[in-house]
Please model this.
Amino acid sequence: MRVDYHDLVGVVSLSGEFDLVQVHALRDRLLGAVRNEDHGLVIDLSEASYIDSVGVSLLFELAERLEERQLRLAVVIPEDGLVDRVLRIVDIGSVATVHLNVDAALADLG
Amino acid sequence: VSDRVAADQLRDLQRITDAALAYLPLEGLLQELLLRVVAILNVDTSAILLLEDDEATLVPRAAKGLEEEVERGIRIPVGRGFAGRIAATRQPVQIRDLSKAEVVNPILREKGLHSMLGVPLLVEGAVVGVLHVGTLTERIFNDDETELLQSAGDRAALAIYSRLTERERGLADSLQRSLMPRLPELPAVSMAGRYLPAAAARLGGDWYDAFQLPDGRLGLAIGDVVGHGFHAAAIMGQLRSGLRAYALDGMAPGEVLSKLSRLLRQLEPGRTATVVYVVLDAHGGRLIIASAGHPPPLVQTGEDASYLDIPPSVPLGASRHVIYDDLVLEHTPGSALVLYTDGLLERPGEPLDEGLERLRSVVTEGEEDLEHLGDRVIDVLLPEGPGEDDAALLAVRALPLGDELQARFPAEIESIPGMRRLLGRWLFEVRATRPEIDDLTLAAAEAAANAIEHAYGLAPGLVELRASVSKDGTVTVLVRDFGSWRSPRGANRGRGMMLMEGLTDGVQVIRRDEGTTVELSRKLGVAAAA
Model:
């Protein structure tokens, strides 16, 4: 997991397999990546090859927490992979905007 | 009279190295030796110091009347003080009045020693230690006494030396053995490892390792630290741990070796090692490999064996800014992968190519059982036993899984990645596409997570995985637990069920008294129902 900040938006990049074993280790770091002054967060899954229901639930939890603080969540998803199929099934679009690359996500949150 | 005394003394001395002593452990032998020296020379103290591996420090190993010297772990630099001077000059040294001499070891003064005599312990002209005696009253040791102590020292040196080499051999053996891994047991993967120490029982720097990665794939490594002796072996142990640590962190092979090279340069500048590290991704029918100057692994498929075509690379530690690349190669299910070190190939005065060809031709014989293959390779390549160099071999075969898959796993979250990999391997064999493999393994992982979280509570249990494919290409995956059903709770599990349904054509949950079975089905060759 890597975190970069673009002005007031954090970009968290997750690579490899975002499964239930990884999620336990990543949860606090992911939730902690949001700074007080930020107005949005981008989760970049371009390099992620796998995400299961536990990973999905963490994204939903994150969206809920951000919403409570009136912050927005954008998700970058690679086209046509397993991650794309999974996030469509659970309708991630109901809690986050979905983009094909980080620049588009930043433009949306900016 | 003096002739008789001399004869008696010599006879006493003989006893120092007589056969009975040969059976004492080193510490006992030294103690016995000192007792006799004290008696023969009629002195108050006596001590033996041995030279450390660094050849710059003397450490007391046994003492009579100076026991504190051993207990306090005093270290005396060669060249300094009484014993240090004996070791540096390789000559006997006598001190008539200790109060006027340079002494490093405070215990000599604390004990109130007045006069001392010491001789070097020499083996083939090289110092291995120092033997010294002391008296509480003034004493002038004459030439005969000096010669007597020297001759006791000479005999002792030989005994100590052979005992040390023996001890070193024992240590070498157990150290090396303890560093060879217990091979992991994975469903339908067979593995065999061999390690042969060098003929002279010198410690070597070869190792092999095999471990399951957190994502369920198999990591395999073999390496050879240049050099011999304790030091090379110690470096080997550190590299082995380093490689595992980087690998378990999820790094790709090339990155693991790049980091390992940096680690080696830090541990010991100038030392080099060759390593090959392979991640066997049976799931995708491929292997990911990086090599640092190591001879190429061999792959045996059916009646054919060939060396992997990997580009040349530099050994670890040889270059400051080296980056090792990953190479992804096809790997047919059922093929054996054979990793080895050059100790297996080398024969004096023979080009390496001949050794490579010899190994290839043995492996071509197509021995199915890898334990037998290991024995056969050693028999043919090292017919006269261990060579000048140590040698290691690691062979691995991911067996074809057949038409029907069945496996059981401990009902723990940590089992899930391995379970996914196994199902992925099987799906690959029945010619599922990459998206089909991804979807079905994820759906099965969700079913297994359900079973683990809801069937057993905290008690240990098992989860069974079965898979089969019908004539029309419909895959059925069964995930079964043997616990009592408790409805999935929370958003997680709700989404788990949603994913199972979305990624397959059908999900059925069959609850029985003896456990719950989740049945997932999907027809290959058409897009998922979602």
Observations:
- Residues 53-68 of chain A form the longest helix (16 residues).
- The interface with chain B takes residues 16-17, 19-21, 50, 52-54, 56-57, 60, 81-82, 85-86, 88-90 of chain A (CB under 8 Å).
- Chain A is about 40% helix and 25% strand.
- The first strand of chain A starts at residue 2 and ends at 6.
